[in-house]
Design brief:
It comes from Amycolatopsis pigmentata. Keywords: NADP. Pfam families: ADH_N (PF08240), ADH_zinc_N (PF00107). This is NADPH:quinone reductase. The structure is a single chain. With about 325 residues, the chain is α/β, with parallel strands linked by helices. The chain has ten helices and 15 strands. Strands 3, 4, 5, 6, 7, 14 and 15 form a seven-stranded mixed β-sheet that branches. The protein has a six-stranded parallel β-sheet with strand order 10-9-8-11-12-13, sandwiched between helices. α3 packs across α9. The longest helix has 16 residues. It starts with a strand and ends with a strand.
Length: about 325
């Protein structure tokens, strides 16, 4: 099989396409023949760090067909369409290859009618968004129609991959969604994703603009840039609100004023997808799959997620596109369907 590998840290030029033996699934494992692999910022960030393995195949996300089952696997059959999550977390071999072997807990059924493009775009963005939306109080620990009724969610950076998924999942679950963006072009993407209100933070008073569309305040903030946005978050959150932080854009540190924060009874919840407990991963994958089946999670320009395709041989260029900040989702075409 063809695999993209690297054996030393560095720029995208360390990636090369090689031939490797098709791996065999062990107990509890599923082998997947990949059609698409998704690229995330973590892929290039991991690539420049010291290696934990002698050889690495990048890629956390992907979609394809079940090709073989290891002993003890239940709930899957050869030929099933599936999507993958956390494929290269604490493992040497991810999804930038024609085949990958994964624990069955990192494999989920891809509903009929959903494209492999969508399947490969779920993983990191949708699972991170799910966790960000389910840590509030009040708020649900599962997403679905009605679970967020009566809540107002602010998605900071609503045109990003996680932000877009958060907008789509929150709207599906019944929340009123406000998204912030930095340009008219990104405003169009956030609106396409389903945001009820979009605020360009580079135009005018952001706090006033959010208050104008959410006069009773915000229940939950999905936050990508806490150092940049904390003052606004504090100003617009309701008493008992939550700031759910999944990234550190806009600065490495921020100051939390104690008096204002505790008198509002606020919660700051940090999250890293890679270290969630197994039960949180299971809840997230089940809810994301249900959202896909309901048509609530979508990709493509019409959903605010432009797609950028690269062949397997140009995985390095795909990594570079993500590192340069490509808007939408970068996908690797591993094979035809």
């Amino acid at each position: 099989m063809k695999s993209v590998v690297y054996t030393e840290p560095g720029p995208s030029s360390v990636l090369s396409v090689v031939e490797r033996e098709i791996p065999q699934p062990g107990p509890g494992e599923v082998r997947v023949r990949l059609v698409r692999s998704g690229v995330n910022p973590t892929d290039w960030r991991f690539r420049v760090r010291p290696l934990a393995y002698a050889e690495v195949v990048p890629g956390q996300d992907g979609a394809g067909y079940v090709d073989a089952l290891g002993p003890g696997v239940e709930g899957f059959a050869v030929g099933d369409r599936v999507w993958l999550m956390l494929a290269q977390h604490q493992r040497a071999y991810g999804t930038a290859a024609q085949y990958t072997v994964q624990p069955s807990t990192r494999v989920a059924h891809l509903p009929e009618g959903a494209s492999f493009d969508l399947g490969a775009a779920l993983g990191v963005p949708a699972m991170t968004a799910h966790r960000a939306l389910t840590v509030g109080d009040p708020g649900p620990d599962r997403l679905g129609p009605g679970t967020m009724d009566g809540l107002t969610v602010l998605v900071q950076g609503g045109a990003g991959a996680v932000g877009n998924a958060a907008v789509q999942l929150a709207r599906w679950s019944g929340a009123t969604v406000v998204a912030t963006v930095s340009s008219p072009e990104k405003a169009a993407l956030a609106s396409a994703a389903g945001a009820h209100h979009v605020v360009n933070y580079r135009e005018g008073d952001t706090e006033a603009a959010i208050r104008a569309v959410a006069p009773e305040g915000i229940d939950l903030v999905v936050e990508v840039a806490p150092a940049q946005n904390n003052a606004v978050d504090l100003a617009v959150l309701k008493v008992g609100g939550t700031v759910s932080i999944y990234a550190k854009h806009g600065g490495e540190e921020f100051v939390v004023p104690i008096f204002e924060t505790y008198f509002k009874n606020l919660r700051y919840q940090y999250l890293v997808l890679y270290f969630l407990r197994d039960e949180a991963i299971a809840r997230g994958s089940a809810d994301v799959t249900a959202a896909v089946a309901a048509g609530a999670l979508r990709v493509g320009e019409e959903a605010g997620v432009p797609l950028h395709h690269f062949p397997l041989a140009e995985t390095g260029a795909a990594h570079d596109a993500v590192e340069r900040g490509a808007i939408g989702k970068v996908l690797i075409d591993v094979s035809d369907q």
